[in-house]
Every structure is written in structure tokens, then in C-alpha cells.
Design brief:
With 172 residues, the chain is mainly β. The chain has a domain of 120 residues: Sandwich (Immunoglobulin-like). It is built from one helix and eleven strands. It is elongated and about 85 Å long.
């Protein structure tokens, strides 16, 4: 009888110890698939929930999860930054090519600069945006593995509001 009680207490302590462990993740596997302009990425065992928080002025964005979609420069007036759903850049991190989806409905010229961490402009391109969605592919194959920034400025047509954004991209 004493053995049963000792076993029950031991089991209770083991389960109690197991329940008080800190949650953690283990990435067992993952991969990606690309076909034209469609990219899928997945991983097993990593957090798939993305939660973004912005400061009240919109100068700083912190993202919990797998993605760090954009970094906004702190400046005097941040009211003219692209909203989260107007510019999409993926895959990030990337081994070679990056696709930028211009989803803003404003028309004008999108000036895109690829900048290294020292602030040097490595590549510059102007793209006409008709306000109906536009996709541009940037080939970073010749770039060394590092962190880069895409600075995007909308030079508006027809008197609309100019916008800007700075996006961090990791090339591996």
C-alpha cells in the first residue's frame, strides 16, 4: 500500500514539474516553395502567430513572431508613411530575389533604393505605380549576405500625398 502512495506522489510531482515548465519551441523542419510570383514558406514547431505593435506616433513598430516586415525611420512627421498593407516585401530573409508588391491605390512614381547598413545606395530604381497593384522583382544574387534596407518613396501624381517607407531585408 505504501508503494502505491509513493508511486502516486512521485507521479504527481512529475506531472506538476512538467506543467510548470516554460513554453518553448523546437523547429523540427521547414521549407519553402516558389512558383512565379507565388511563394510559400512553412516551418514546423515555430510560432506562426504574428503580432505587431506600433507606438502612438507610428515611429516604431515591434513584431512578435517570425517576420519583421518594416522599420520606419523616426522623423518629425510620420503621417505620410505607407500603411502595413500598402507595401509587401518577401521572402525575408532571402537567398537571392526579393519581390515587392506595391498595393497602394495612389498613383505616381515609386523610387526604390537598396541601401546597406552604412547608408550607401547600392541600387536605385523608379517604378510607375498605376494604383492597381504592381509587382517588382529585385535580384540580390550579387549582394553579399548581410542586412539591407529598401527605401521606398512615392512621388505622387495628381496632387495626392507623398509617402515613404524603410524596410529591412536580410540576405543569407
Amino acid at each position: 500500500m505504501k508503494t502505491k502512495y509513493a508511486f502516486a506522489i512521485l507521479l504527481t510531482l512529475m506531472f506538476h514539474q512538467a506543467m510548470t515548465q516554460v513554453a518553448s519551441t523546437f523547429n523540427a523542419t521547414g521549407n519553402s516553395y516558389s512558383s512565379g510570383y507565388v511563394n510559400f514558406e512553412w516551418s514546423v514547431g515555430e510560432l506562426a502567430l504574428i503580432h505587431s505593435m506600433e507606438s502612438s506616433g507610428g515611429e516604431v513598430m515591434i513584431t512578435n513572431g517570425l517576420l519583421q516586415p518594416k522599420i520606419l525611420l523616426a522623423s518629425g512627421n510620420t503621417n505620410f508613411n505607407f500603411s502595413y498593407d500598402e507595401i509587401r516585401i518577401f521572402p525575408n530573409p532571402t537567398p537571392n530575389k526579393v519581390e515587392i508588391n506595391f498595393l497602394t491605390n495612389q498613383q505616381g512614381i515609386m523610387k526604390v533604393d537598396v541601401i546597406d547598413v552604412t547608408g550607401k545606395i547600392l541600387l536605385s530604381r523608379k517604378v510607375i505605380n498605376y494604383g492597381i497593384g504592381n509587382i517588382e522583382v529585385f535580384d540580390l544574387t550579387t549582394f553579399a549576405p548581410a542586412t539591407y534596407f529598401f527605401r521606398i518613396d512615392l512621388i505622387p501624381a495628381y496632387g495626392s500625398v507623398p509617402k515613404k517607407g524603410l524596410y529591412k531585408i536580410v540576405k543569407h
